Amino acid sequence: MKKERIFVWTCKAITLLAISFLFFIFLFIAKESFIFFQKTSLLHFLTGSRWNPIADPPAFGLQPMICATVYVSLLAALIALPIGVGMAIFLSVLAPQKIQRILLPLIDLMAGIPSVVYGFVGLMIIVKFFETHFSWSSGESVLTGSILLAIMILPYIVSTCCESMTKVLHHYQQTSRALSVSKWHMIRYLVIPSAKKAILAALILSLSRAMGETMAVMMVIGNSPIFPHLFRKAETIPALIALEMGGAAVGSLHYQALFAAGFILMFVLFAFNSFFFFIRKRIEEGIK
Amino acid sequence: MRNNNGKTSHLSLRLWLFLSVFLVMASLCVIFGYIFIQGGSELSLSFLTNMPQGFPLGIDGGIWPAIVGSFWFTTIACIFASFLALPTAIFLAFYAKTTRIVSLCHFFIHSMAGIPSIILGLFGYTFFVVTLDFGVSILSGGLILGIMIFPFIEVRVEKTLLEFPKNIMQASISLGITKTWTLFHLILPGCIGNIASAIALGGSFAMGATAPILFTGAVLFAPSPRSIFSPAMALPNHLYILVGQGVSISKAYGTALVLIILLLVLNIVPLVIKMYRKER
Question: Is A99 within 8 Å of chain B by CB?
Fold first, then answer.
């Protein structure tokens, strides 16, 4: 009995330790950024349009990066959502079991491709395509970043939608078959309307993945801290942190500004993720 | 609704589904095909086993230290993540007393999974490198990768444990056998295959990650590491440097191919385990 108690307490302690890392992450990022916010006002940081940490006095305006992050992610989600939902409908309703069993692991594999590899392929294919077929000065642009991001978030959309559509289908399948409703009719009038919540959940998940994506976007978007335009270079918040962190001395204002940028990103994504968590929970409860 | 019986019905729906399937499959094929075709010609024994050479570094020679470095980062990440994830999953599946605690823990774990990798890199830098003074090392990078894959492994392990037939636990309890004995002698041996698969998949996730180790463990050049307190090269970061600084595109293809092959191997582990268990 004593052994049992020790084991349960160890499990409890390690669970607590694991979860405390979440708070550590929050705390450590917040600590550095609050030092920054004491010196620069939050409003200035969010709305300032110039980012020049080495000027005298240094300028820390995050607005172009915030806009670029939102712009790229929204556009990517807009491109990926119809494709992902279509693929999910095909997989859950139309594809025979055999094809489903081959395709689903492939979709998972697609989510497992590292983002540097995506960035590399994007640079070699998408950026090159825009450079050779359009007379742009550079193929690195918001559009390139969104197309690449759209491909990267597809698997998340497909798997989120597919899961709930399969459940809906199981629910109605026998009745529909008995009434000899065609599969297409079922998709149009049963599957799509009842998957609305799942599609919303997929949208939020994919947006949060897209906004936090670092390497792939950084490699194809050009990284210049100017206000984003569809066909011109831009820089997202994760890219800003990844690029400038190496050059910022520990404890300097620049270092703290990067933490502050990270804090804002983390805060927004935390809100998104919480929203996703509760929608998914409601879907699960609704189907049960 | 008017023509619901003919083949022409729901034409736009058909077109939409066809286009989406085509686009997804096409992008998948293009990515893999491109890396395999372009990287295949670069792959050779000397590329795998030599040190990177030339100036700028990496323009010539091989990627051996990066392969070893990636192996170390992934191993430490898997050990640390399993150390956190297995007890957490066991606690949440069998010992947590109220559903309230379970759903609260699920919420926290889900939030951890949603933290972008670059933020983990920032945290790893202030916490492991600066505050705990581990320096830029395999240990710092591995630990932060472990935190990254912890939610991934925990969710899968907990699911496996919950899917294990409930009647075994009930029968044991009614026979007066302790939960812990049943867990170690009946349930864990039955789930070990799925647990190993979850860890392998988590490992593949850690091996491909760049941003978390960008300033916590990976460096431009280092010989094959001798201890976990020294920094090391890693495949994804090496690829980023080769591409980002325009060192050598052909070497970049080779590096990307090696990385993809290693990930495929880790992804095949679960399938092999499944087949092996079916045969028995």
Answer: no
